[in-house]
Task: inverse folding
């Protein structure tokens, strides 16, 4: 015979075989350690069924399925419910359209930053990034590209920075 009782912490209804009475288990719902109570004695007003030839036994009523008592309760929560399905983050393009600032791209090439023999690439990149502001910068990517040098008519490999920002 099963002992049916509720968890004292989460009020989850539990059914345990009477041989486990007095032992300690973890509630499968909340994980709280609980002691299985002793089996309550059968009330004296409940007659013990007997079978005799005068009263035939209904085979459906005596089946195992008929003996399973359904004790159902709807859980009541005092806290707001949590969403079980998280919404995905909006794509970057959608996020850019929803803001008042447009998404922009700036490419700063190394060859454009050489003035009279002085390499000012780092200075120009730093100035541009500080002008845009750290909170508006979405990404900074390094690029390698090939271009035709007009003076020597040779293909040269150079580098650049691609900045994606809100502006």
Result:
């Amino acid at each position: 015979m099963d002992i049916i009782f509720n968890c004292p912490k989460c009020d989850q209804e539990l059914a345990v075989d009477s041989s486990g009475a007095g032992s300690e288990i973890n509630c499968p719902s909340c994980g709280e350690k609980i002691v299985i109570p002793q089996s309550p004695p059968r009330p004296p007003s409940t007659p013990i069924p007997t079978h005799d030839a005068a009263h035939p036994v209904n085979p459906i009523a005596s089946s195992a399925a008929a003996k399973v008592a359904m004790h159902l309760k709807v859980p009541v929560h005092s806290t707001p419910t949590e969403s079980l399905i998280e919404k995905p983050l909006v794509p970057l393009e959608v996020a850019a359209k929803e803001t008042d600032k447009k998404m922009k791209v700036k490419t700063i090439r190394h060859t454009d930053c050489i003035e009279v023999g002085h390499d000012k690439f780092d200075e120009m990149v730093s100035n541009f990034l500080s002008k845009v502001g750290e909170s508006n910068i979405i990404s900074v990517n390094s690029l390698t590209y090939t271009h035709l040098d007009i003076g020597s008519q040779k293909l040269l490999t150079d580098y650049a920075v691609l900045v994606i920002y809100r502006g």
The first helix runs from residue 64 to 67. The CA atoms of residues 112 and 121 lie 8 Å apart. The radius of gyration is 38 Å.
